[in-house]
Design goal:
By secondary structure, the protein is mostly beta strands. 0% of the residues lie in helices and 50% in strands. It has no helices and eleven strands.
């Protein structure tokens, strides 16, 4: 069974940091890309950051570039997202997602599997 288990969300003050983790399991043939998407209340889903499994190439959305760092532990099929200088507009449900073949963009529709999400709330 394919699973993406995200953790690390919570309540943090503006300017603070947070590290999200996602453990992927059940992908018997591996995956090409893994990353994070988010959806804020009343807003469109947004691709936040992705990382390629093969070469470690990363993508960051303009809204988090310079404040976020994605990394992966391929041996343990775990991906991390460290976010610094958090802003209230970063408040959202963050989803871990996988793109099996690497053909899509780092956005909701470019992914093949999505986890249940973890809530991040940034207070001002």
């Amino acid at each position: 069974e394919v699973q993406l288990q995200a953790s690390g969300g919570g309540l943090v003050q503006a300017g603070g940091s947070l590290r999200l983790s996602c453990a992927a399991s059940g992908f018997t043939s591996g995956y090409s890309r893994i990353g994070w998407l988010r959806q804020a209340p009343g807003k469109e889903r947004e691709g936040v950051s992705c990382i390629n499994s093969s070469d470690g190439k990363t993508y960051y959305s303009g809204s988090v570039k310079g404040r976020a760092t994605i990394s992966s532990d391929n041996a343990n099929n775990t991906v991390y997202l460290l976010m610094d200088s958090l802003k209230p507009e970063d408040t959202a449900v963050y989803y871990c997602a996988v793109d099996l073949l690497g053909r899509g963009a780092c956005d909701w529709y470019g992914m093949d599997y999505w986890g249940k999400g973890t809530q991040v709330t940034v207070s001002s």
